[in-house]
UniProtKB/TrEMBL annotation:
Domain of life of the organism encoding this protein: Bacteria
Protein name as catalogued: GGDEF domain-containing protein
Transmembrane portions of the chain: 14-33, 263-288
Keywords from the named record: Membrane, Transmembrane, Transmembrane helix
Database matches in PROSITE patterns: EAL, GGDEF, PAC, PROKAR_LIPOPROTEIN
Residues in GGDEF domain copies: 469-607
Keyword set includes Membrane: yes
Organism expressing this protein natively: Rhodoferax saidenbachensis
Reaction(s) the record says it catalyses: 3',3'-c-di-GMP + H2O = 5'-phosphoguanylyl(3'->5')guanosine + H(+)
Amino acid sequence: MKFQKPVSRESAEWLAFAAVVLLGCALSVFAVLSERNFILKNEHNRLEAQARIVDENLRRQLAGVRSALDSIRKAHLENSPGATGLSIQALRNAMPGVRALALLDKNGHILQSSDEMQDSHLDDADFLRSISKMRDAGTVYVSRPYENTPGTSNIKLSMKVESPPGDTPGVATAILNPAYFDVVMQSVIYAPDMWSSISQRDGFVVLFVPPSLRPGAAIPGLSVVPDDSRMVVQRTIDATQANLDKELVVAVSRSYQEISKPWIRLAIELASLWCVFVLIVGPSIWLLQVKRRSLSVLTEKRAKDAAENAERMELALAGARLGLWDQALPSGLLQVDERAASILGHVDGQPRTILNWRDEIHPDDLDNVVLAFDRHLSGETPRYEAEYRLRHVNGCWVWVQARGKIVERDRQGRPVRILGTRADISASKRHESEIQQLAFYDGLTGLPNRRLLMDRISRAVNLSHRNRQAGAIMFIDLDNFKDLNDTLGHDKGDLLLAQVAARLLEVTRKTDTVARLGGDEFVVLLEELGASDSSVSERAEQIGQNIVQRLSTPYLLSGHEVYSTPSVGVAMFGADTESIDDLMKQADLAMYEAKAAGRNALRLFSPQMQTQAAASVALERDLRGAIARNELHLHYQPIVDADRTMTGVEALVRWNHPRHGPVSPAEFIPLAEKSGLILQIGQWVMEQACEQIRLWGARPESRRLTVSVNISARQMRQPDFVGQVISVLSSSGANPFRLRFELTESMLFSDTEDVIEKMNDLKAMGVGFSLDDFGTGYSSLSYLKRLPLDQLKIDQSFIREALTHTSDATIAKAIVGLAHSLGMLVVAEGVETEAQHTFLAQSHCDSFQGYLYAPPCSAERITALLNTQGLDQVH
Ligand SMILES: Nc1nc2c(ncn2[C@@H]2O[C@H](COP(=O)(O)OP(=O)(O)OP(=O)(O)O)[C@@H](O)[C@H]2O)c(=O)[nH]1
């Protein structure tokens, strides 16, 4: 862990600590030294006092001895030996420091003495020598110390005694009493380590206490204490002053070691104290600092965390574009920060205080906001949350999302402060509505799509259950819209769809729903049409007819006038409607009925329709096995020339249902188209026709007969259609030049190039082509000339009306002219009367087909007819 902060403070603490320790140590040293000095000085003074005691005693004794010796000397000089003897004894008795007194001649013979003299050796050589050296009569001569009992030093003090004239000079001698001095010196000893001594200047120790530690009888030098380890106080008895022949030194001493003990103890105590102080205070400071450092690190970390949290919070708020608000209760005084204020266009970067917060809220949203707010205040919700609009400074409304929570209550628990955030959700609201639009509305027309429609229908049906009001749904499908797309282009188709949507909205009520299911399918949901069934269907039919009529009015698409019609299927719903799916199917079925009825029509769903639908489903099911069960067969309708000679036939498929008998192609071909069975049936028809061509080809009367086969768009769109034809031709052995395919105009609109290519391939093999129902579709002359067509078949509608409507006659003639000019022949179909034949023949029509000449009949019949060429017999 890295501690950075209060380094200076810590250093200061360590400096202070060091200063205290140093100062303390210095003071301690000073105290110890002072103590030492005091002790030494004290000790010195004391030793001095003790030395003085010994010194004074000694001086007194010496003075006494001098006086005694002097008395003996004088007595001797006065020559009164008896008196001398008595006085010596008396003198000795008077002096406790003297053990014996004696008067000696120069040879050391005792002339007179005190009683104690018996054990004294006064005749030793040293002494005699010293007597001989005594020159001065007034001087007291001090002998060398000697021992007559081991361990006890004796000393003699002697004065020269001038004998009366003629007599031998002698000496008066006093032997000092060592016991006395011992007592004196013992009395000054106050410590076991203390020594006390009397010695001669030249180092001879006279007396030493304690005697056991006596360093030696004759130690050269002035001091009896040879080393520096002792404190010594000496007092010298000056030889001149005391009339001695040599100086005496009184010394008392003590061991420095002993003397120093108190201050050394003090020093040790103080040192220990400081050691303890250092050992306690130092680690304490260290611990304190470590703790403080970790505390400061913790505090720093907390502060950093708090700062980071605040920063994160700020970032989060900024990132989430959240503003803060703070509201006091019950005053309602609202304070918003600058971000919350900026949402409403206050860009001065200042917080705002709002007195009346309700004023800013959109009136439509206010109730919800207040409700949410009150629910939170009353404790019903854990937090307050609302989405609403606020007035922007520029006057528009801004969608915001507000969230908040009570953060403070009074003692009674009543909320006094609520804190929260505010976010601008205009963009997400916009996206929401865009998504809503995409999810529920059709992009092209803006109408509700299937999903929304289903929801509305479901709600409408539920409502009708409750209020017993019936409604209707209308399926609207534009007729042949594909053709319009194919001819005018998808863009125009789109324009038409948009206009259809607009028109539907025009003719319906606001409460109705107009939806686009997809493609050219629209649905109108009509609600609350009334209570009774009959009135409901009447009103629905009326509205439906309105719609048919309105949608059938020509459209103007970028300058092109376009005609379009709708097929409308209507289904009613009411209290007894159970399934919406069924309802939708019903409307769908009705719409298909309208288509089947020729388009541009309206059909109301009826239960019979359902039955019919079910029947057609059953029929379709039966159709699936019809080929295998041999129920299909071909009929051939003759095509004749102007002389009514049969030149060809059109193969027409027939179905003989085992139960229902013959089923009309108009009934089952659409079913086959719808179910895809047309491919199977178409293939079968082609095979049958080719087989017939082969058969007829073998007979001279029928060899030149062409057989026209209807080809459905689905068949033609098969990628291997040409291959299939080749295969059928080769397997049947039919002459391709006798095979003619009849195509419808509509199949040429899509994948035109592909169709042309296939036609060219087949044409190259000899297969002919005829364009069926010509004139009913949106034929484009530009591609008509590109198609390898042999024939145009004028639709029978023109033939039927040709004699009554001049326009149809004109169209029929125009078609003939057009075909001839493009090198094609013209076949008129549906010719039923002689008048029609005459008209068509006069119009230079090349071939004719119709009941006037022959109805569709079996191949055998055709063969028979050919044999006789008696078409009249057919009827
Ligand atoms: N322009 C345009 N065409 C569309 C759109 N959606 C689907 N279609 C076309 O609308 C046509 C719908 O045709 P259908 O309803 O099946 O057939 P139809 O030609 O109207 O014939 P009937 O309904 O039998 O009368 C198809 O060709 C689709 O390709 C669209 O959004 N815009």
